[in-house]
Amino acid sequence: MNSTCPYCGVGCGVCVTSQGNHQATVTGDPHHPANAGRLCVKGAALGETLTPQGRLLTAQVNGQPVSLDAALDAAAAGLRAVIDQYGPQAVAFYGSGQLLTEDYYVANKLMKGYIGAANIDTNSRLCMASAVVGYKRALGADAVPCCYDDLEQADLVLLVGSNAAWAHPVVWQRLMQAKQQRPAMRIVVIDPRRTASCDQADLHLPLRPGSDAALLSGLLHWLAQQDGLDSSMLPHLNGVSETLAAAAQWDVARVAETCDLTEQQVTHFFRLFSQHDRVLTLWCMGINQSTTGSDNNQAILNLHLLTGKIGRAGCGPFSLTGQPNAMGGREVGGLANQLAAHMNFTDEDCDRVQRFWRSPAMARQPGLTALDLFSAIAEGEVKAVWIMGTNPAVSMPEGNRVAQALAACPLVIVSDVMAQTDTSAFADILLPAQGWGEKNGTVTNSERRISRQRAFAAAPGDTRPDWWLLAQVAQRLGFREGFNWQHPSEIFCEHAALSGFENGGQRAFDISGLAQLSQAEWDALRPVQWPVNAAHPQGCARLFGDRRFFHPDGKARLLVPATPALTRRDAAYPLLMNSGRVRDQWHTMTRTGLVPRLMQHCDEPFVALHPADAAQYGVTEGGLARVQSVQGWISARVRTDAGMRRGELFVPMHWNRQFSQQSHVDMLVAARACPFSGQPALKQTPVRILSLAVSWQGWLWQRGIERPAGLRYWSRVPYPAAQRYAVAGDGLPQVWLAEHVDLSGLDLQLATGSGNDYRLLAWRDGELQLAFYAGSMLPSIDSAFVAAVFADAPQDAAGRHSVLAGQAMQRSAAGRIICSCMGVGEQTILQAVAQGCRTTQALGRKLKCGTQCGSCIPELKQLLLSDVVVEE
Ligand SMILES: Nc1nc2c(c(=O)[nH]1)N[C@H]1C(S)=C(S)[C@@H](COP(=O)(O)OP(=O)(O)OC[C@H]3O[C@@H](n4cnc5c(=O)[nH]c(N)nc54)[C@H](O)[C@@H]3O)O[C@H]1N2
Ligand SMILES: Nc1nc2c(c(=O)[nH]1)N[C@H]1C(S)=C(S)[C@@H](COP(=O)(O)OP(=O)(O)OC[C@H]3O[C@@H](n4cnc5c(=O)[nH]c(N)nc54)[C@H](O)[C@@H]3O)O[C@H]1N2
Ligand code: SF4
Ligand SMILES: [Mo]
């Protein structure tokens, strides 16, 4: 069966062979135009995420399992009570670019057309809002001009604030292959960090965070002086003279100074740009998540418009979407300041949508955007919120305030696929959603391509698709008429019809050509790029080739980007913290965190910084650190990285309370936002770093996922039959263990050494239940081996010794493990004896055996006395 990967906005097609029973093989779909058979490691590991582990299978009200009907009744009654008492503005929905288009359409319709408020916003506010403003202001429509085939056709590719090698890996693979086939192709990476995406870059510009618009305005000015603009574009543009006049202040010297680059680096980049005709700019969160996010977008658009690098093969301003359906959300009007189908809150648009929906209570004003929404919850203005497909307790800035707001909110409804998330902890009503592989619908990727996600697995427990949960609550609120669908294809057709309704070429988003699909045709829908209408019945790869834009006068608009606002630091918070993704994790880890294989690449929350900064601030590679901002603190493992700029830190966004004690980066980030898009500046937080002083560190392995207590630090990695915790604490490890871990009824095997060296295994009927390895430093153990012992192996005595050593011993070479601490085997010791070692001290000097806990010294003495002849 063909479907679409549920992770990033590349939107790769997958072929799924379901073996039933939560087993499926997932391979790349060779016929899907986005990936032509390629997949990244997350996509390839999708089959491993289908585990029932941790799923939310039944509805809950106030923590008690209830029937789905009862929960839906409670949700509707709760919303109705708030609306009746406080009015429609007191309720809100917070959705997600991971909802399918059909789900999203229903949520938006219910809120904006029936409840009659526009308080529906989504995690796309944290992600795509600045790009939406950028495209709408410049092009008159939120319409991405490009397509993925441009990757192969470009001469020069700029990656600006995008670590595509990790975040859009198949786009990256396509670029790498194109460059291999056409070595003349050039790649420039503009990112404060040297990332994995710099590996094949011809130029990396490690600019000062937030200074992109200066660089791009400088380029515009430089091109203007070199006659490098496309004069044939001028009739199609407004705002040219103001924009060029403002750009003139950005000479090379000022650009270099503002961006903290050398003049050589700047002119090298400018020359590369001017030497290539087909330039494709790919950008992502380094541009959008900024207090000048919309203007950063504008700077990119100004450049492409004035150089005519738009609407042609291999060219264009190409914003990469983050989530699998970020684009679909934009189409249905999932953001609080848009109406459905690319319409706005003009009277004309409101009337049009209301007529189409025949709805009772149309919202007439934009609603609360994400940051304001959570403030309004905190202030008691919003009294009921329904959160679906997102985990704001982790991903929103000012995590503490979000948690307080949710705790204080009288009614929190959460629909999720997982039972335990940082957000579901605050839910009064939990609704069990169907996940990837169980539900049916469509998603739209970065290049406007609509693809089907198809169900191949039976839906477990009481789980239901999000659209169905929404429609049921709508009906219970008394809105029977508008929410009567029997199948998601009907919702899709309604959405498609609305896109064409009284459109007349005014709105870019038009898929009226799909409005008549039968259920079978929708089921079989092949990936297609919008618009799909009478003019483009088979879809449309590139937009704006005709240089007609969607502003009323048909022209595109240039605007002067705001002067970069460089975040201030002070003596108390001298460093600037950046945040973002790692290759194998997805957001708040609810799915990727279940797959041991995906944890191997980065198995702990970390803070990366330049080695010289590490030295300056007294933290060491592999040690633990605390990072503090005005908002709060987190702890993380230190990674030194010479690819970091001095004075800057990078912390991954993924870790949260399910996987770590206190390592969720949004605890530190302030809710400062771009004034035009409301998108928060998640990449620039003034912080300080200090070493986290602990007296011991270790590994705790246990079967369950109970959160360990009484520690200074922990983070968790799942294995099939056990959980591994990196831990650190004060005092003595054995005291901590005795106070916080229940070992009653277990057979204990332990090794104590000097200082903090302490190891303990707890067995029941030959099965390992718990393993603990502690020392002053983090002991080195072979996790794969320990995990395998938990998974299957009852151990003999020798085996138990190697488990205590935490290392699989090559029995044939080293023999039975004698010294578990240092992992020294019987044969090795006997060889040393044969070579002249006569005392335990001599053995210790040569092999280190017996030098840690000393519990093997009696056995060493036995071996010294023995007459065993060593076989060579
Ligand atoms: N593996 C993985 N892939 C994902 C996701 C995931 O969770 N995991 N999530 C998906 C989603 S929703 C999104 S939005 C995308 C995000 O994809 P990306 O935006 O590519 O990823 P990030 O790591 O958030 O940030 C990109 C880069 O911006 C840089 N940056 C920070 N500040 C600045 C600046 O001022 N200027 C410039 N030029 N660069 C700056 C950072 O150093 C970072 O390398 O990834 C998608 N793909
Ligand atoms: N500091 C910092 N913070 C960031 C970012 C950053 O770069 N730095 N990036 C921001 C960006 S770009 C984004 S997109 C956000 C992402 O942040 P979130 O959206 O909060 O993260 P996810 O983990 O993707 O949350 C999705 C939730 O939906 C659930 N889910 C999965 N499938 C379904 C389904 O079919 N139905 C329902 N109802 N639920 C489902 C998952 O279990 C999970 O709980 O984070 C933002 N936060
Ligand atoms: S590149 Fe994105 S869409 Fe493609 S397989 Fe990887 S995560 Fe999935
Ligand atoms: Mo995102």
Automatic annotation (TrEMBL):
Cellular component terms (Gene Ontology): membrane; oxidoreductase complex
SUPFAM superfamilies, A to Z: ADC-like (SSF50692), Formate dehydrogenase/DMSO reductase, domains 1-3 (SSF53706)
CDD domains: MopB_CT_Nitrate-R-NapA-like, MopB_Nitrate-R-NapA-like
Entry-linked Pfam families: Fer2_BFD (PF04324), Molybdop_Fe4S4 (PF04879), Molybdopterin (PF00384), Molydop_binding (PF01568)
Source organism superkingdom: Bacteria
Domain 4Fe-4S Mo/W bis-MGD-type positions: 1-54
Gene Ontology biological process: cellular respiration; nitrate assimilation
Molecular function as annotated in GO: 4 iron, 4 sulfur cluster binding; metal ion binding; molybdopterin cofactor binding; oxidoreductase activity
Cofactor(s) needed by this chain: [4Fe-4S] cluster; Mo-bis(molybdopterin guanine dinucleotide)
UniProt cross-references to InterPro entries, sorted A to Z: Asp_de-COase-like_dom_sf, BFD-like_2Fe2S-bd_dom, BFD-like_2Fe2S-bd_dom_sf, CT_Nitrate-R-NapA-like, MoPterin_dinucl-bd_dom, Mopterin_OxRdtase, Mopterin_OxRdtase_4Fe-4S_dom, MopterinOxRdtase_cofactor_BS
UniProt record similarity statement: Belongs to the prokaryotic molybdopterin-containing oxidoreductase family. NasA/NapA/NarB subfamily.
Protein name as it appears in the record: Molybdopterin-dependent oxidoreductase
